[in-house]
Each structure stands twice: as C-alpha cells, then as structure tokens.
Amino acid sequence: MSIPNHILEQLNSQADLISIIGRHTTLKRAGSEYKGCCPFHGEKSPSFYVNPQKNIYHCFGCSVGGNAISFLRDYENLTFIEAVNELSKQTGIEVPKEEQQNVSYQRAPIKPKAKPETKPKTAIEPATSAAATQPQSTNNQPVADTQSSISVRAADTQPPAYNDNYDNYPPLDAYDSVPYAMDDYDTSYQGDANYQDNSSYPPAWLTGDADTTALYDDNSVSDKDGNLYELLEQIQQFYQHNLTIHPHAKHYFLSRGITEDIFETFGLGYAPFGWQHLEHQFPQDIEGLKALGLVRKSESGRDYDLLRDRVIFPIRDNQGRTIGFGGRALDDEVKPKYINSSDSPVFHKQHVLYGYYESRQQRADNWLVVEGYMDVIALYQAGIYGAVASMGTAINESQISRLLTLNPTLTLSFDGDSAGQKAAWRTLEVALPVLGDDKELRFLTLPNNHDPDTFIKSQGADAMREQIATAMPLSQYIFAYLSERYDLTLAEGKAKLMSQVRALTTALPKGSSFRYLLNNDIYQKLGGKRSQNKDAKDALLDFDGDMTISQQLQLCFLFQPRALSDDPIEAIWQQAGINDLQLPAHIKQKASADTLRPLAWEDLQDNALLDIVSTIKRCLNYLPKDANAAAHFILSNVKPSTQETLSRDWGGFYKALTTRNILSLDGLVEELVSQLIERHMKKKIQDLVKNPDNIKLAIVRKQSQLLNDWLRAQQAEQSAQMATVKS
Questions:
Q1: Is the peptide bond before 202 cis (omega within 30 degrees of 0)?
Q2: CA 553 to the chain's CA centroid
Q3: Which DSSP state fits 347?
Q4: 191, 162 in Cβ contact below 8 A?
Q5: Contacts 24+ apart (CB under 8 A), 301-304
Q6: For each successive 10 residues of the chain (727 residues), what is the average pLDDT?
Q7: How far apart (Å, rounded) are the C-alpha atoms in residues 244 and 560?
Q8: What is the C-alpha separation between 644 and 535, in angstroms, rounded?
Q9: 7 phi, psi to nearest 5 deg
Q10: How open is the CA angle 543-627-640, to the nearest 5 degrees?
C-alpha cells in the first residue's frame, strides 16, 4: 500500500506526540519543550526531549529520535501500516486507498495558438460591424480562435469594461442560461490600449500577450505530471500579483489598517472578475484546478471559477505550504461574505487552523482562538502572536488538544452576539474531553460588541493584551452563561442549571479533579456547598439517625447515581495525592504491586455497598432521568437482600430530601466515602501491627498521612467559607 507523503506529513504534524510518548514515560514542560527519562534506555537523569512545535523527539543520551510514526514503530513495535492506522484514528485524518487520488494530476498539453488572419489595418472594422460578421456561438459550439482574435482587437477601441457595480454582476444562474463562447473572457474585459491606470483588466501577463516566464514557465514542465502543492503555490502568486494591479482590492486591506509588509507575510491576494480567469492562466492544469475545487462545473456543464472579485487569504499547512484559499467579498452586501476552497487531497478543513504556521514562525507561546482571518492578521500585526481561526467550521477536539499541548492555557475569543456565544459554548463542549487537570480554558468576550480586529484599532495592542490576560476562567463562564438562561430565583431554575452542569462535567476526562471542583463551585454559587451538605445531613438525621455510614451512602447513591460516573474513591485518592505516592527507593523496590494499587470498593469488604455500587455502574447509561424512577430501576437489579433493606428506607429518604429541595449530594457523598476510607485505613494499620509487614505498614501509614492531611485541608476550607458567610 502506497501512502502519499502529504498524508504522512499531516499524520505526523497533527498527532498528539506528548500523549503518545506520555503513556510510557513522564514528561514535564521545559520551556517550549517537554523532557523526561528516555523510554528507549534506562537513565536516571532526563535527557529525552519532545518538541511539540515540530512534533519530534530526541534523546541526547542514546541519540534516538523521530516523529509519531517512528515512535509507534520503534517503541510500541507496530508495523508501518499499523502505526499509520493508529494515527489516523487519533487525528481523524483519512488514509486514502491506493486507487484514490493523490497530489499528482495529469497536465494537458499546450494547445498551439491559431495565428490571426493577416489583414491590412484599414480592413479592421469597428466593434459593432466586426461582431456582426462573427458566426454566432451556441452552447455547444464556441467561436473559432481566428474570430476571437479579430473581436479582441475591435474591443480595444472601446472604453474599459471593468465595473465594480455589483448590481450588474451576472449571477451563476444567468451564466447558465445564456449562450456561452470560449472567447467571452477576453472580449468582456479587454481595456483601452491608451488607458494608463494599472488597474486595467486583464494584465498583459494574464492574457498571454506578454512574456510570463518570470512567473510561471509552463513549457518547462509540459511533459510532466502536475503537483497540487506546486500548482497552489503558482495560484497564490497569481492572486498576490493581482492585488498589486487592482487598486480597489488593495484599498480594501489598507482601509482595514493592514500594512503592506503584512501582505507579504500572509501572501494576501485578489481573485479578479471573470468566470474563467484560472483556466486562462493555467490552461494545462484544468484537472488540478478541479481537484482543488477552485474550478467547478455548473448545472449546464460549464466550468467556472469558485473565487471571483474577492480578496484572497492563502491557507497554509504546518509546513507553510499553501493548501487552499479563503475569499472575502469586497462588498458586505454580497452573500456569502466568505468562501473557502473545498476539501481536496491536500486540504482538509477540520485539520487546519489559519494563522498557525505564521504564529509558529514567531515562536508563539500563548494561543488564542478567534473567529476570522482579519482577527488573526490584526493581532499578528499588533505583535500578538498565537491567534488562529478555524476554516469556517467549529474547532474540533484534536485541534484544541494540539493547542493545549503547546500551552496548557487556551483562550477563546468569540463575538458577543448570539451566534458568537453559541459558537463559544459549542467549543467548550468539544474541549471538555481533553481538559485535564493541568489544562485551562479561558473565554474572552470583548466589550461593546468589538472583535479583536476592531478592538485593536479602537483601543490599541496593550489594551488587547490586558483583555487576554484577564479572560474569564471556564468555571465562571459556565455559570455566567447558564445563569442568563435560567431563573435562579426559583428552585426549578437552579435544578435545571445544576442538571446541565452535571451533564457537562461527565464529559471531563476520567479521574478529573476539576469535575468535582467545578460541580462544588457551581453549587456554592447557587447557595453554598456547605448549605446543601448541611441540609442533606439534617435530612438523614431526621429520617433515621441510627443508620450506618454504609447504609447512608447506599441511599445517597440511589438518590444520585451519577455520583458514581466519576468514582468517588478514585477522586479522593487522586485529590489527596495518594496516587502519586513518593516512597524511598528501597521500599518502592520491595513493595508488591498489590500494595501500591489504588483502593477499590472491594477492599472495604461491605457486600451490600459493593452490590449497589457495581449495579449502578453497570446500569448508569440506561437509567431514567427521574430520580425516583431511576432508584426503582436500580433496586430491581440488585441482590434480594440488598433490595429488601433499601426498599424499606427509600421512600422516606426520598421524601426527606425533596422536602428540603436538595439539589445535590456531592458534598455528603464525598464526606461519607472519606469516612469509610479513613476507617478502612485505620483498621488496616491495626492488622499490620498485629501481623508485622514493615514494607506494607510503611506504605499504608504514608497513605493514611496523606489522606488525613487532605481531610484537614478540606475542613479548614469549609471553616474559612463559613467565616466569610458570617462576616
């Protein structure tokens, strides 16, 4: 199977190399890179570096190095095809089958131009009479080249036909409904030979009346297959050249405050009028133009250029190669305002971020997602590097993950209107699965309906930097966004908000501490975790004060089974730092794997509690939304002995909680689970003292110490919150 090089480059550049290597060794940030102990050879001092900008790794100890594919092959022992398929799954980049199109295309041979008939100058008649003597073209039979030559000369006597009045610009349906002649392009836009303005259309090098070898030498490659990357580069130069000879297009950028040096940096250009200017400029490359989606076929079967009379934004990949174009109408009334070239063998919208290459060239460290091309360019010109924009589609999970690898804090800047805020919320939902505890998402909504482009013009670059630095954290944004949509003066509004927050937090990575903290933060804003926790405890005491901790916890899980979507024991184990237990080397070497593993529900040796926990985890995705209905669904699936005990208490417990309008039991669940773990650890220490095992005893004592430190910190935080409330 032959895989095109451009696909391999895309796979390697888009792969999350930090995560891939991080499965086998601990990597820590070191400036713009990550370092750790080399997974290929044993070492105590880290000499293994991963560069997320270039997506490569290198060990200065054993000299091993490479990219994502080479790591999967050399370390995980995958075959080349297996490594490629694995990266394809991770990145979403499809690996084409052998028979599918690649970056090559067949170039057409150069058609020799028919020599015009030699006639004395006196024989050339005015345009009207010349047109009258031409044979009429039909939809299927174009006018002969010799007649085209005569009509071009006749048109030279007419004033320039260039007109930027959009009302007179023919729509595509009109293009389909009228007779079409192959020479219409030349006759419609030929200017007066005496017209001195450089904006006359078309330029000599475009129509073939001048030597264009300096730009593109088609003859030199006429016998070779074309390459889409090379063709795109030539098209980009063509568009860029057109910007210099069409003042109205250049004026658009200048009026937006863009300086001419930025024209060159971003390769800005202009696609001129004319339905077939690309085909006329690149007659050998029609197949390539169609493969790129820049030339399309109308319903009547005629080819036409996608981008016409639009300023052009070249789209580049991570290597800086042009892979597509975005075109903006010069008149805001023209719809659509923006058009992007379609997906092609070299351009996949969902994997490209506009401005990424230019920002990487400036070694950007802070990354900002914005809505449009002009926002990216305006920020770059102001010296604020790291702004990127998606290709007319919502930014996806792999792109967010990539940016968070480059910097653990990512800022999203969207317009303050309804559409902008909906886009921000969609991005938030997409980002949650890759938002580990060491990552942070921030939201920037500029005042007075500004976007970054207009804000910089109005307030300056320093003010924009200040806005970015004070962007709103994710937790605040979620509450601000949802509180505008629900009436929080009503219990029902609070319940709906909390339901949506719980649904959001379940998308966070497994074991995320942020899930727990975010829920508690929102609960506190709605009335306080302490208040909710106290009300829940009072309800339990009023209902039955003689219940054991295990029985209370079982009823809590029945009332709120979603509390087990992120295992409470695992969450406490992680928050207390027990999972990262630091032990002396001699103890760690002698300790068994069973001693170092995290605590599990089975270790608590409580059959009824284990029954309810395992049943809920098994049924979690099938539970009804109604709490009472969900509880009865769970009860119908537990063991008869467990069912008998819980069924007797469930009705009264449910009534006690709903009477007090309890929204959440997260705080109470955490407290009850912590008490069970604490009792288990004490009992384990007592058993190890009676039956000495010094290694296990040292480990359990260390675990117990970390747990107690965490519990004291929790109590101190709650006391501080209570003091704040009283004051």
A1: yes
A2: 40
A3: B
A4: yes
A5: 302/175, 302/176, 302/180, 303/276, 303/279, 304/172, 304/175, 304/275, 304/276
A6: 78 87 87 88 85 90 89 80 84 64 76 54 40 38 34 32 37 40 32 34 40 42 74 96 94 93 95 91 92 91 92 90 93 89 87 90 90 94 94 83 87 85 90 90 88 92 92 90 86 87 88 82 69 65 74 91 89 85 77 82 93 93 87 93 90 81 78 91 88 84 88 72 43
A7: 66
A8: 27
A9: -70, -45
A10: 70
Q: Do domains 5-99 and 101-110+154-166+188-342 have the same CATH topology?
A: no
Amino acid of residue 86: E
Query: How confident is the model at residue 82, as a pLDDT?
Result: 78
- The hierarchical CATH code for the domain 348-485 is 3.40.1360.10
Give the whole-angstrom CA distance, residue 290 versus residue 311. 21
Map 527-560 to HEC letters. Answer: CCHHHHHHHHHHHHHHHHCCCCHHHHHHHHHHHC
Please report, as a single letter, which amino acid is at residue 703: Q
Per-residue model confidence (pLDDT) at position 663: 65
pLDDT at 190: 31
What Cα–Cα distance (Å) separates residue 32 from each residue in 28, 49, 364, 406, 725? 11, 10, 10, 8, 43
Name the burial class of residue 150, with classes exposed (0-12), middle (13-18) and buried (19+) by CB atoms within 10 angstroms of its CB. buried
Per the CB < 8 A criterion, the answer to whether 227 and 103 are in contact is yes
Q: Quickly name the fold that domain 5-99 has.
A: DNA Primase; Chain A (3.90.580)
Q: What is the pLDDT of residues 158-205, one digit of tens each?
A: 333 333 333 333 444 443 433 333 333 333 333 333 333 333 334 344
Provide Rg for the chain, Cα atoms: 34
Alpha-carbon distance of 700 to 686, in angstroms, equals 11
Rounded Cα distance between 44 and 42, Å, is 7
Q: Are 253 and 267 in contact (CB under 8 A)?
A: no
Supply the pLDDT for residue 194.
32
Instruction: Spell 309-337 as b/e; 16+ CB within 10 A means b.
Output: bbbbbbbbbbeebbbbbbbbbbeeeeeee
**DSSP string across 170-196:** PPHHHHHHS---TTHHHHHHPPPTT--
Per DSSP bridges, beta strands 48-51 and 33-36 are antiparallel
pLDDT in tens, 457-481: 999 999 999 999 989 999 989 988 8
Q: Rounded to an integer, what distance in angstroms lies between the CA atom of residue 368 and that of residue 129?
A: 62
Q: Which CATH superfamily is domain 101-110+154-166+188-342 in?
A: DNA primase, catalytic core, N-terminal domain (3.90.980.10)
Structure-block tokens of residue 109: 């041979």
Tokens encoding 303: 């080819």
725 exposure class (CB count in 10 Å sphere: 0-12, 13-18, 19+): exposed
Length of the chain: 727
Q: Strand pairing partners for 327?
A: 312, 339
Task: Look at the alpha carbons of 603, 536, 528, 424 in this order and tell me if their dihedral is positive or negative.
Answer: positive
Residue 419: CB atoms within 10 A of its CB come to 11
Put the strands of the sheet holding 269-271 in their side by side order. 269-271, 310-316, 322-329, 338-340
The ranges assigned to domains in the chain are: 5-99, 101-110+154-166+188-342, 348-485, 538-726
Following DSSP, what letter does each residue of 578-637 receive, concatenated? GGG----HHHHHHS-HHHHSPP-GGGG--HHHHHHHHHHHHHGGG--SSHHHHHHHHHTT
